[in-house]
Amino acid sequence: MKNKNLLKIITIAFFLVFIFSVPIITLFTEDKKISEIENKILTQLPRISFENISSKRFMKNLDNYTSDQFPFRTNFIKLKNTYNYIIGQREFRDVYVGKDNRLMEEYKFNKESVDKNISNILKFSSYMYESKNIKSKLMVVPTSIAFYKNDLPEFSITNNQKDSLNYINNSILDYDFLSFYTPYNVLNKNKDKYIYYNTDHHWTQLGAYISYLDMFNYKYDDKILFNNYNKVSDNFYGTYYSKALLPMIKGDLIYSYSDFNNFKIEIDFDKTYNNLYDTNKLNGKNKYQYFLHGDPSFAVIYGDSNNTNEVIVFKDSYAHSLLPFLTNNYGKIHIIDPRYYNIDLEDYLNQNPNINEALFINNIQSFNYTLYK
């Protein structure tokens, strides 16, 4: 009886200490603006005002604030997720933990957003063809869950990406000025290679190179694929890990092709580099930003100086691993990210009359959101 009472007292005491100490620690701890490990902007202390209080925004924001600024937040989430994993949970914020701890993101076909993107790409492509005789190609890249369904937990639900890719292709079949390419088949043939990161939503540069060679009908073998392909990092924890936060997940390796690096690039109108990779990014959390110096809204790459062909590329970050290879095919590569830069297309094409091709390069998850407006 004494032991039971002692246990109750200890439990109550621990609970009271926890309840009262956490707000005090939070109050005297400097607020963090972002959680790099979660890739998330954290809620700041809400402003007290009559309007905020009467509309109940204050209490809602205060609740989010205490949750986001919780002391040792990341360690607590890791502990909580580990416990949930032990008792059988295999899905964390739309990321599945599969066989051999393979991480994959749930895919749901969003017809409304896909149709909007297709409609706007057709509008851009039609304008470029009618005004400048520029033909376009849309490249849509599947994500890892398309190829490793056998590794998924039994309860997982995900739409078939091949069906979605066929839908996109069929939507543009009748237009001569816009063609479609997906590396689905060639990536499926090479799925036993390290073509996708495990902890991140991007493909590796090997996957991008295989797709590039296939898109341009180049023959290749393993000797070509792994020539000058060098490891640059062995502790990359990407966006999937930021959602799952499970300590047993190992970091990814990052490799890059050193012979596709030394080209001049201008970024966001105010920065110029003589290489396409940024080794400083390997010291931060988001190591994928090593490719193309981050996530630029606008860039120009100067490729083969003997080549007069120029291409304009509309992209998301999946293109960053692939763009270096285009230096083989174009003397100048104009890069636009429609998520961040609303280009005056007419004006830009008038200023760059040598542009004679256009590429739209996106991953299929991006197509579930409105990219092109």
Description:
With 373 residues, the protein is of the alpha/beta class. It is built from eleven helices and 15 strands. The strands form four sheets. The protein has an eight-stranded mixed β-sheet, covered by helices on one side. Strands 3-4-5 form a three-stranded antiparallel β-sheet. A hairpin with a 2-residue loop joins strand 3 (91-92) and strand 4. The relative contact order is 0.12.
How would you briefly describe this protein structure?
With 373 residues, this protein is an alpha/beta fold.
Can you tag this structure with a few keywords?
three-stranded antiparallel sheet; eight-stranded mixed sheet; 11 helices; 373 residues; single chain; alpha/beta
* Main sheet summary: 8 strands, mixed
The overall strand count is 15
> Kindly state the mean pLDDT as a whole number?
88
Outline the low-pLDDT stretches.
none
Binned, the helix content reads 25-40%
Strand arrangement in the largest pleated sheet: 7-6-15-13-14-12-10-11
Strand content: 15-25%
Measured distance between first and last alpha carbons: 70 Å
